[in-house]
Structure formats: C-alpha cells, structure tokens
C-alpha cells in the first residue's frame, strides 16, 4: 500500500481523506491544513492524524494529495516533488501556465508521477460512451451551477469550464487552432458567466457555456460526429447514443426513417448505455495508485492538466480584448 497524506482539509479535502482511508490501495497517514481551528475540528470529528507543517507531512508519505486553493498548488507540488514524492493535484493544476510547465519539468527530473483531479473523466456517464466518441466535429457543453461563494477566487473558466475543456481535449485528437470567448462578472470580481468557442485544426468546433449564478444545476455535453449523436449528462449520470445507418430495404413498422433531398434513406437507432455506479473521486485516486505501482502514465497526466489550463487561459485572455 502507498502511504498518502492530504494537504488541505476543506470541503473537498475531507472527502479525499475519507476515500483514501476507505481505499485498499493507500494507507492514509494524515493531513495538514493551515487553519488550526479547522484542523482541530477535523481531528476531533474524524480522528485523522494532524501534521504541524507541510514539510513533516511530505516526509511521512509516498503520495501527496494536494487539495488546497489553486494559488498554493505550485508551492505544495514543488516541495513534494523535490523530495521525490508522487503528487495528486486538484484541478486546475496550477494558477499559471509557467507554474504548470515547471511542475511538469520537475516531476520528470525527479522521476515521480503526477495526476490532475479532472474527476469528470471518471464520471460513469462519460466512461460508458467515451470509446464510442470518434472524431466528433461539433461539441456543445453547458455547465451551470447555483451560486456558491466557494471557488469564486478564480474565474468561472477555472472553476467550472475547465472540466469540459479537459473532456473535450481528451476526445478531439487535434491541435487547437482558434479560441473566441466572452465573460461577464455579475457578483464576483472575476467572470461568473462565460461562453467560449474552440476551433481545432481538423475542423472540429466546441461551444462551451459555464455559469455559477444559474437558477439550476446542469452539466451536459453533446457530441456530434458522422452518423452519430452522443449526449452525456454528467449531473444525472445518464448517456444516450443516437446512431444513423443506411435504412434496410424493408424496415419494420416501428423503424424511424429519414430521407434526404437526394433520396438517401437512413434509419435512426437509439441506445442507452448501461451506467455502472461508482465513486468518481475514489476511482481517480485508485487509478493514480495503479499508475504509480505499474509505472504507467496516469489517466489525467500533468501534461494533459497543463494543456487544459493553457486553453482555459486562452479563453480568459479573450475577456480583456
């Protein structure tokens, strides 16, 4: 078992602590949190071991799980990597591209592995259809959330939209060509609503909308590709696949047939993939343990986390133009 420690015991940090303790791949050693009052409360309620400093926790573990505010990701990761520790780091990987590149270089130099917490990659609604998504040419995403003060220290692009950026980059096998975007600050100092259009060199276009001041929660993505439409509801954990195939000579009475202007007939087929219930955060943590033990590339590598951040900053840069 890998010895693991958590930096940051806020809302998400407490979830990571619980799941690391439940996992059969890790031995939870303890945690560090700079807020002593919160740390004492966590110790009292859950009994986890508290470390007085970041350094003492890093020295005691094999894997450092960084669940701190984004602004401190770089410093925490740098300290861990320089001591030869593997890092799991919550999204976004760091605050700046320069920091992300430095972390990636450090990890390579010190022969340690790192994974970024883009948890939607482990959402069962996505994993059920990801192998069906082939060369999508248009993608539309809506990620809307009711207002929550937590996370407003960064633009909505880094808070919410970056999940969809990562998903899109994982399925579109092409380089980004152009990025256009607009954002509006309503209640925060940074944009609360954003829309972006990402154009890829292969012709694929992705249209992304994110809001953290919505009246309801929504996390939906639609993938359009030749002869297929795939819908993923990350919130409700549901997927739907609509395929079009050449219509048979004698379709049955209930077949849905479409005919274009040239007379070509297509039959529509509906599929609802089986969704396997899971805990996505536990799955991503366990997958990282497997990558360390098997010496393989993590499912969401530091490189992929850096590329998602790069596109996110391209979007943010559009706001000031």
TrEMBL record:
Domain Gfo/Idh/MocA-like oxidoreductase N-terminal: 3-118
Superkingdom classification of source: Bacteria
Record-level Gene Ontology MF annotations: nucleotide binding
Domain GFO/IDH/MocA-like oxidoreductase, chain residue ranges per copy: 156-217
Membrane-spanning residues: none
Alphabetized InterPro entries for the sequence: Gfo/Idh/MocA-like_OxRdtase_N (IPR000683), Gfo/Idh/MocA_Oxidoreductases (IPR051450), GFO_IDH_MocA-like_dom (IPR055170), NAD(P)-bd_dom_sf (IPR036291)
Protein name: Oxidoreductase, Gfo/Idh/MocA family protein
Organism: Tenacibaculum jejuense
């Amino acid at each position: 078992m890998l010895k693991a420690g958590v930096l940051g015991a806020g809302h998400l940090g407490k979830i990571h602590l619980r799941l690391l303790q439940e996992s059969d791949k890790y031995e939870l050693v303890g945690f560090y949190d700079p807020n002593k009052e919160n740390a004492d409360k966590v110790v009292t309620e859950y009994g986890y071991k508290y470390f007085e400093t970041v350094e003492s926790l890093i020295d005691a573990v094999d894997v450092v799980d960084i669940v701190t505010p984004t602004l401190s990701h770089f410093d925490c990761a740098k300290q861990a990597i320089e001591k030869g520790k593997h890092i799991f780091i919550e999204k976004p990987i760091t605050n700046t591209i320069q920091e992300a590149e430095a972390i990636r270089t450090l990890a390579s130099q010190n022969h340690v592995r790192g994974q970024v917490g883009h948890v939607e990659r482990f959402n069962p609604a996505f994993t059920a259809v990801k192998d069906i998504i082939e060369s999508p040419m248009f993608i539309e995403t809506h990620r809307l959330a009711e207002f929550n003060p937590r996370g407003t220290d960064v633009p909505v692009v880094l808070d919410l939209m970056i999940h969809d950026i990562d998903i899109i980059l994982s399925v579109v096998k092409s380089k980004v060509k152009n990025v256009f975007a607009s954002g509006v600050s309503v209640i925060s100092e940074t944009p609360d609503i954003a829309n972006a259009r990402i154009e890829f060199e292969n012709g694929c276009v992705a249209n992304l909308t994110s809001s953290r001041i919505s009246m309801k929660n929504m996390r939906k993505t639609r993938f359009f590709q030749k002869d297929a439409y795939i819908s993923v509801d990350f919130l409700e954990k549901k997927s739907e696949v609509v395929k079009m195939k050449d219509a048979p000579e004698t379709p049955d009475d209930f077949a849905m047939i479409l005919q274009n202007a040239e007379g070509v007939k297509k039959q529509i087929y509906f599929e609802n993939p089986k969704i396997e219930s899971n805990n996505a955060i536990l799955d991503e943590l366990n997958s990282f343990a497997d990558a360390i033990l098997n010496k393989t590339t993590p499912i969401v590598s530091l490189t992929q986390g850096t590329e998602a951040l790069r596109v996110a900053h391209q979007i943010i840069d559009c706001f000031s133009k």
